Amino acid sequence: MAFDVLDEHEQGELVQKWLRENAMSIAIGIALGLLLIFGWQQWKAHRVRHAAEAAVQYHALVQALDDKHADDAKAMADALRKDYPDTAYAVFAAMRAAEIASEKSDLETAASELEWARDHAGAPALKALASINLARVRLAGGDADAALKLLDAVPKDQYAALAGELRGDILVKLGRNDDARAAYQDALSHLDPQAPNRSFVQMKLDDLGAAPLADASKKESSGS
Predict the structure, then answer these.
(1) Last residue of a domain, one of 158, 173, 200
(2) Are 123 and 60 members of one domain?
(3) How much is the mean pLDDT over the chain?
(4) CA–CA separation, 137 vs 169, rounded Å?
(5) Can you tell me the distance from the alpha carbon of 57 to that of 62, in angstroms, rounded to the nearest whole number?
(6) CA distances from 12 to 19, 21, 177 (A)
(7) Cβ distance 135 to 150 under 8 Å?
(8) Within 10 Å of residue 163's Cβ, how many Cβ atoms?
(9) Domain containing 78 — which CATH number?
(10) DSSP for 165-195, written as a single string
(11) Overall domain count for the chain
């Protein structure tokens, strides 16, 4: 028993000695740990404030657009892009600025805004939407090939109906009516029966007419 007590005593002395020798390192480690925890909490709080400020700015931009103050809205969009480029609100603002430019027939500015939105969008859905809008601007500018290339890069599961309709518009411009017909049909397959734009897409499809009989015969022959 005495041996056991003495052994425990020696162990205690060793522990105390180690603590004395490493007191500074321990203190520094604790301080660094506390600083990291505090810094992390501060960073999270900053991110929350940052996003909240961007949200307020974007709400003001939307209000300016509702009030038909396009110049004020454009200035707010520029400020959001400059001060909050890492937020989704800056991406939304760039897309709104593109709308303003498009309404003024300034397609190059619209394209520039949408390229920025696409490049800074963190979420795949936002990146896809910016790319689709950019393709629409390129088509409006007469560059159907560039528009189709942009659309080809959009994932198939993103805005299938919207992308399908636009693909049809592009293919019509390129004179590829059969492919356009298939694109419109694909868009319709992804639209809800009650979707407000369904009749418009159907009208585009109807304007192309039925598939040529030669093509239909080929399909029947290949199926037999």
Answers:
(1) 158
(2) yes
(3) 82
(4) 12
(5) 9
(6) 11, 14, 88
(7) yes
(8) 24
(9) 1.25.40.10
(10) HHHHHHHHHTT-HHHHHHHHHHHHHTS-TT-
(11) 2
Considering only residues 30 and 69, tell me which one the structure prediction assigns the higher pLDDT: 69
Judge contact between 84 and 122, C-beta under 8 A: no
Tokens of 107: 């397609």
160: left (phi over 0), alpha (psi -120 to 50) or beta: alpha
Pair (58, 149) in one structural domain: yes
- Please report, rounded to a whole number, the percentage of residues in the chain having pLDDT higher than 90: 44
Q: Which segment, 9-23, 176-190, 202-216, is predicted with the most confidence on average?
A: 176-190
- Indicate the pTM of the whole model: 0.71
Structural domain of residue 68, as residue ranges? Answer: 54-158
DSSP 123-158: SHHHHHHHHHHHHHHHHHTT-HHHHHHHHHTS-TTS
CA–CA distance, 89 with 58 (Å, rounded to integer): 6
* Claim to verify: residue 60 and residue 131 sit in the same structural domain: yes
d(CA 69, CA 27): 59
- Please tell me the predicted confidence (pLDDT) of residue 118: 95
Determine the residue type at 206.
D
Of 122, 117, 181, 123, the C-alpha closest to 132 is 117
- Specify the pLDDT at position 217: 47
Torsion of CA 112, 118, 121, 124, to 10 degrees: 170
